[in-house]
Write the structure tokens for this entry.
Amino acid sequence: MTALDARPRAGATLRFPERFRWGTATAAYQIEGAADEDGRTPSIWDTFSRTPGRVRNGDTGDIAADHYHRVGEDIALMRRLGVTDYRFSIAWPRVQPTGRGPAVQKGLDFYRRLTDELRAAGIRPVATLYHWDLPQELEDAGGWPHRETAYRFAEYAGLAAEGLGDRVATWTTLNEPWCSAFLGYGSGVHAPGRTSAVDSLRAAHHLNLAHGLAVRAVRAAVPARAEVSLTLNLHAVRSRTDAPRDRDAARRIDAVGNRIFLDPVFHGRLPEDLVDDTAPVTDWSFVEDGDLRAAAEPIDALGINYYSPTAVAAGASPSSPSRSLSPSPWAGAERHVRFVPVPGPRTAMDWPVDSGGLHELLLRLRDDLPHVPLVITENGAAYEDYADPSGEVKDPERVAYLHAHLAAVHRAIEDGADVRGYFLWSLLDNFEWAYGYSKRFGIVHVDFPTQRRTFKSSAHWYADVIARGGLPTRP
Ligand code: IFM
């Protein structure tokens, strides 16, 4: 019997398992605003976004979607959607502003109120401890390439878990450590904007260590029923041809994009081919005895963020496809790999729309990590949304995107992947990192000057999917 043999729900064509979790996701810096309220101090993203030329239009997260002051309104939106779960992140610089010392009560209070109101609304709180907002003081002390940051993170994780442990259902240590390490310290297109291949690898290792230490710290503070997880933006890598050189290019990207996290976290080892590929950059002597064992602290689920696949061939490319003027984030692979276009339609990010990549990724994880429950912690798309003269926001392309990707998840479950939930990115239009407010990922439109929220047609569509417990045949 597969998970899909569960009792049918009226009206649904592609039924999901009865206990499937339906959620939306956000992140602190992207929506909260209130950047200097109640003791919060700057994170690397405050510094980066206030540095001219780093973020499009000079946008910052100072106000963002003003969620800090509109929690009640935003939870009411989620009630209307009917979501079972809400994935948000806790701002480290709100809870432990300088990355050291005791927790700030007012910072914790904000998340206590958020989680209380979620629970009162019947929505499970799913908290991410790190969605890229490293306290600036820790960056000044060396940031993620510096080993001590991993211990700082574990301490903060323990404080957050002690303060909120009784009310959070699922804890996620890190969101997309690949971006923190390789966009933050390799290509420099994300905060803190450093460009050093060796630092990006050091950062990746310390993020793995931080994750494992944080899992321990959280488990020590929360009830046994709470789940602990990690979210990775795994790359669905395709080789352009079956030629050995092209396949080797795909292997390299898989090593430095995926297995650099999967192997330490699930097997307590570094991929040997990664160590060979990166030999011109580092000898990995920053890995100390016991680090990989610490990184492999058991977790309850793996979160996957998926947007589009990556296609490669043998060759050399100075950077990834969409970032052609920045240094490469692909330490050790850049002289051997050329990124090739994936055909088909594209989103406003210029990312290809290809739901097959999500199916491929889920089956790969089914085979590689057969005992690890999977959750799609982010999936969604940016389009050029606007309110029409009648005030409606129609986004049929996003509906089509979401439909195709949920159908791919359904297919993967039919094929035996243990996928437990789906979190749509994102609840609200928000601060899209280096793109500022120029890209809209929300299913709820935010008119930033007035902070007015409007359901897009995709929000109505998603509410219907959740109510049915499955997908209609057509978007
Ligand atoms: O907005 C981001 C999010 O913070 C992390 N994952 C990808 C999203 C879209 O770029």
Observations:
- The first strand starts at residue 14 and ends at 15.
- The chain is about 35% helix and 15% strand.
- Residues 318 and 328 are 6 Å apart (CA to CA).
